[in-house]
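A further point concerns the way the authors explain their paired sequence and structure data. Showing the layout once, in full, would remove most of the difficulty. For illustration, here is how one protein appears when written out as sequence plus structure tokens:
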Amino acid sequence: MWKDLGMDLEKHDEFLAPVPEVYGKLFMAQENRPKGMGYFDFVVGDIHGIRVKELVDHKANGGKVVASFCVFVPDEIITAAGGVSIGLCAGAQFPVPTGEQVLPRNLCPLIKSSVGFKLDRICPYFQVADFVVGETTCDGKKKAWEILDEFIPTHVMELPQRRAEADKALWMEEIRRFKEKMEKESGVAITAQKLAASIKIANEKRAALQRLYNCRKADPAPISGKDVLLISELAFFDDPKRFTQQVNALCDELETRIVRGEGIAEKGAPRILITGSPMPIPSWKLHAIIEGSGAVVVCEETCTGTRYFETTVREDGATLDEQLAAISERALNINCACYTPNNGRIEDILRLVKEYNADGVVYYNLAFCQPYSIEYRKVEKALQEAGIPVIKIESDFSEEDTGQLQTRIEAFLEMLDK
């Protein structure tokens, strides 16, 4: 299978070699960890195995595999056309040097990592995908898709930067254009019945993640931030129905732990909300530092956090046009930093701090990620006016700055009024 996918097996093994030790230290060594994490440990342990085989079999049966990086790409349309939507590898330092062979060095590491994964041929999801769906959430991505298209077909959805009526009309046409793209690629006509079913599947996954996050509002938190981040990352890869079932089973256990007052951290431990750039798998550094310093991460206002699931698609559309309009509306209600103005994100952060009883906010910015870096000024001002401590952390996927970040995080935690 690996040879048929065109993988560079020697480089692939080199990339994965340190993962078992890192995973064991960060995740498996946690005391009093929920038993329900066993399923997700299994998925990570076999992340380049069973799921890839499922996708290969899906293609052998005539289905399409569509890869993406972003919460704006409408999974519902892919599913309704009989396709499978998967996320792509993008959160590791290993392929960044290869990405820099075709991209500028002063570019966001997420983009360099993702393109590097394709050029290195070490991500089986890239290799099995029929095509990639990109979006124009920043200038770096917009131009990178032109280069990525040289190596794998890349369909780009133009996301508006504002929310005026003209912008809504533009995005609605992009949704229609993508529907036509999926119908052409798959040979399957998308009907209202099929789309209603796929909207329900996607919403049930979002509801399960919201239930998981609601568990984190308890003190003591019944599950670590590291484990929840891992689950959020896997949400982009796993079969949606199976994933939803497993998250709900975990929530059953967590809700029992909450009743018993059982937590992963001590009651009263500093509670941290992270906001900013997304953290694709295996980007676990910041959570590991924070929780290794005695605090617990209770919420992520990121695209691998609340932005992924808080906004759902209305299920009351009776016609295809109404359903496509509902899918379009969802994206425009996600408060990504690509929008201007974007005051809704500030309101979200203030609301989430209150809902999760967070003691402080860590603003995470991937190096050279301009939208989130610039937006920090307004977020910081709003948090300071509300009396909420905040620290900005700028980093990448390397381990070079771990010691420096550790020092800054520990100093930040010491100043919290706990």
